[in-house]
Every structure is written in C-alpha cells, then in structure tokens.
Amino acid sequence: MVLNSRKCRWASVFLLFLACSSAAAVVEDGSLVNGDFETPPSGGFSSDAGFSGGPTAIPSWETNGTVELVESGQKQGGMILIVPQGAHAARLGNDAEISQQITVEKGALYSITFSAARTCAQLESLNVSVPPASQTIDLQTLYSVQGWDSYAWAFQAEREEARVVFRNPGMEDDPTCGPIIDDVAIKKLFVPDKPKDNAVVNGDFEEGPWIFRNESLGVLLPTNLDEDTSSLPGWIVESNRAVRFIDSTHYSVPGGKRAIELLSGKEGIISQMVETKPNKPYRLTFSLGHAGDACKQPLAVMAFAGDQAQNVHYTPNSNSTFQKEDLNFTAKAERTRVAFYSVYYNTRTDDMSSLCGPVVDDVRVEQSGSSRVGLGGLGLIFVFLGYQFMVLVLV
C-alpha cells in the first residue's frame, strides 16, 4: 500500500511537471499560431464581418480597435483588397492592433517575419513591437508588383513572456483604412562566430530571418541602425529604404543558401564595423551577382572599406551568374566600416515596377599576406633537387 501511494505521488509530480513544461514551451521557429489567419473564428469566416476587440475574435490573437478578417478578392469600393497568401488576412483600422502572447528564451535574439499590404490610407505604416522594443515601418514604398511585401524585424527578449504586437498608428476619415497583415512567423537568431581568417561576421549571410518556402519575394530588411538587434546578425541597414534577404530556392545565390539583394540605389545600404589593426594592409573580397529575377541591367555596387571606395559593375558571364571582386585598403583604426549599396535604381524587365538590384555574398576582410606561412611574414618554399635544395622566398 505504501509503495502504491508513493508511485501515485511520483506520477502526480511527473504529470504536474509535464503540464508546467507544456505551458511554458518556448516558441519554435516558423509560423506563429494562426499566423496565416486561416483558422476560422467561432462564427466562421465572413467577408463583411468585422471584429472589434475581445480576446477570441480571431483565434489565437487578441484584438483592440477595428480589426477585420478580409478574404482574397474582397472589394472595398472600387479597390480589391490584397491578401498576401492563402484566403484570409487581418486588416487594422485606425489605431487598431492585434497581438499574441509567446514564450521565448530570455536574452535571446529573435526575428519576426510578416507580410503586409496597403489599402486606402494616405500615409500607410505599421508599428511592430515586443514591448519595450518597437519600430514603425513605412509601407508607402511598394517593392513588388504583387501588391504586398514581406518584412523582418528583430528584438532581444528581456523576459520569458513576450507579446508580439502589430498596430496601425494612422488615423483616416475612413476608419477601416489601414494595413493588411498576413503570414506572421518567428525565428531565433544566432550571431555566427567570426572566422579566424575573416574579420566579417555573417559574411555569407546564411543567418537571417525566417523565409516561407512558398513565398518567392524574399524578405525586406528595413532601416535598422542597431547591430545588436538586427534581423541580419552582424549587419545593419543604414538608409531609409530596405534591402532584400533572398534564398537559393527562388533566386540565384553566389554561395550557400542565402544572400542580399541591394535595392533603391543609395537609399539601401548595408554595413558592418569589422575589427582591424591600424596601419595594416587589408583586402576586402566579395561575390557580385545577378539574382536571376529579370532585373534590368546594368547592375553595379559601390563598395566601401575604410576610406577606400570602388564602383564595381556586374559583367554577365554565360558560365556563371556571379563574379569575384576585391578592394585593397589600409586600416586607420581598430574598427573599419565595410559597406555596400546599389549604384543604380533597378526594376524588373517583366513588369517594369518591382524593385531589384545586384546581389552581394561571401564578404571577407583579411589582412594582406595573412595566408602565407613563415617567419616575419615571409613565405618559404623548399624545392628539393636530388641531394640539393633551393629556398624560394616569396615576398
């Protein structure tokens, strides 16, 4: 009897432990619960049914203000509403918001990916936040002819419980005007270790935000001047336009599975501060390519390394979609800025509207001559000829 009682007690403790673990399960990479808004509400879907407030108006989301589930093909006046993926999405009216509570790892870096489309507002924008972190993203520039774009925004978790909030900060005469939100996903980011022979962190751009396999537009990275909370670890986006994070499933990528496509000329700059030794010679190398997205040529980048700058044009080659380029410079300080932007404003030839540009990948900064082995920086090669040998000194 005592044994059975003890077993029951341990079983209860074990079940309680499982219940607590389940309740506090850290969110996994991928779509948030009902992140595509395809789970029907309790009353079912209705193209003219608005939802304002209440914790269960949209399954798994809390709403505040005029929030509406819209359907693909639904009209508002003479305008057809754009639903990025699937059949349904959420539209935010004046000062309206939707939010979802998630469990994260305290201190970890996360990136939120979401799709957004404009409607009838004059100056449309979207505020995305995980309090206290927050950023308002301008939706006025449409980067693709499809009528919507995917964006990424990063935050560092200050506690284990976090709330992802999307809010329309606009106030229009028509309270239903406002951005459409769809396909909300999350990814825990890792800052890659800096290679021993490369001063650039994440120079291959393999670490970045979540990309949906069925979305072919890549992910836009808006302005972000804080390298500690960047959706592209190691890098920041300096200017007022976005750059595009692309994958090898939908684009031509020089190496690996990810790369960066530069958009909007000088208005789309990526940069990184790399560690260097003052007065030492260095070489910046990178791959420059074409994304294979019908981008109208010419394609060119302006590459910066410290006080050196170089205009590099992409030269099409039938055997390859990319080329290797380099820039020599002498470091002036312990940290040197490396940066890239597109020289031209390019659009696609198939629609003449979607923004595109040159692709940059495999960025490296290494001290000149650092790959040679020897004494005092000299490389020694021993050539044996019978019983004799010669020593070649490579300078």
From TrEMBL:
It is found in: Secreted, Cell wall. The keyword rRNA-binding does not apply. InterPro entries: DGR2-like_dom, Galactose-bd-like_sf, Pectin_Meth_Modulator. It comes from Erythranthe guttata (Yellow monkey flower). The lineage of its organism: Eukaryota, Viridiplantae, Streptophyta, Embryophyta, Tracheophyta. This is DUF642 domain-containing protein. One of its GO terms (cellular component) is plant-type cell wall. The keyword Ion transport does not apply. Residues 31-187, 200-365 form the DUF642 domain. Residues 1-23 form the signal peptide. The chain crosses the membrane at residues 373-394. Its main location: secreted. Keywords: Cell wall, Glycoprotein, Membrane, Secreted, Signal, Transmembrane, Transmembrane helix. One of its GO terms (molecular function) is enzyme regulator activity. It comes from the Eukaryota.
